[in-house]
Amino acid sequence: MREGDNPLRDFLATQSVVVLDGALATELAARGCDLNDPLWSARVLIEAPELIQQVHADYFAAGADVATTASYQATFEGFARRGLTHEQAIELMQRSVELARSARDAFWAEPAHREGRLRPLVAASVGPYGAWLADGSEYRGHYGLDEAALMDFHRPRLAALLAAGPDLLACETLPCLAEARALARLLSEFPSAYAWISFSCRDDAHNCQGEALADCLAALEGFERVVAVGINCTAPTFVPALLRSAARITRKPLLVYPNSGEQYDPANKCWHGPRDAGEFAAAARDWHRAGARLIGGCCRTGPAEIAAVAAWARADTVAPG
């Protein structure tokens, strides 16, 4: 990517909706991976990387314009806790990008896949500081760290991921503004680095730490290398109100990739409630009407949901903008 190139520019100029992928961990678990581990899906980078590439391939086939890498839980601290060296951690982080790129390149090598589509992108996932703690703090915030400390935490993993050549970064499931600002500030240290920033929200107005989402997006407005902002890992019922408040605040493209709508039972460690790809796509239409330009899924969504979103998104006659 040349310096100055926004990787989303062509997609936003030609498509009403940019289709993101869905959950990675959900699909890996469905394929027999044991994710009961502090490393979560990053464990599969060590044990079965070929399955990760297969999941990426399935999302591209379903219609995703963007693959998000298996690096959400990949941190130097987390890998060190597993006994891996700094160099091994870098190798695994970069493997996450290489797997997504390989899946993308194989998909794009088929002429039939190019009809009516732009070459898909690879977004390197950057999970929040709390993710490596594996104690749920990414859904609470209140880390007790300032922006400088959060920049120090994220800087080396951004360097490792960007060296592998993703198209952009997916700074996602952030519970608080301090971490979002830390990541936004870091982008200026890396030539040609662009990112989207996405918050997890606890209700229809606030991020998980309790800050107003509108205030968070307003604080990010001046960061040019943040090319989209929005919401992920959030209950779908909260999304329309969150998007409407966001659309009044920011001129940046809005993105949303919420959970499936099922409810998690932490006592029994299982999910309850309906999961219907058609209903998810119908809700996605409402999110688009509320201002979302990039739409996908987070926890408990899969290729079926993404295929349903892509089906109407590519047939949609609404002009971009």
From TrEMBL:
Pfam families: S-methyl_trans. Zn(2+) binds at C233, C298, C299. GO terms for molecular function: S-adenosylmethionine-homocysteine S-methyltransferase activity; zinc ion binding. GO terms for biological process: methionine biosynthetic process; methylation; S-methylmethionine cycle. The keyword Zinc applies. Residues 6-313 form the Hcy-binding domain. InterPro entries: BHMT-like, HCY_dom, HCY_dom_sf, Hcy_S-methyltransferase. Its cofactor is Zn(2+). Keywords: Metal-binding, Methyltransferase, Transferase, Zinc. The keyword Lipid biosynthesis does not apply. It comes from the Bacteria. PANTHER family: HOMOCYSTEINE S-METHYLTRANSFERASE-LIKE ISOFORM 1, ZGC:172121. NCBIfam families: PRK09485.1 (NF007020). This is S-methylmethionine:homocysteine methyltransferase. It comes from Paludibacterium purpuratum.
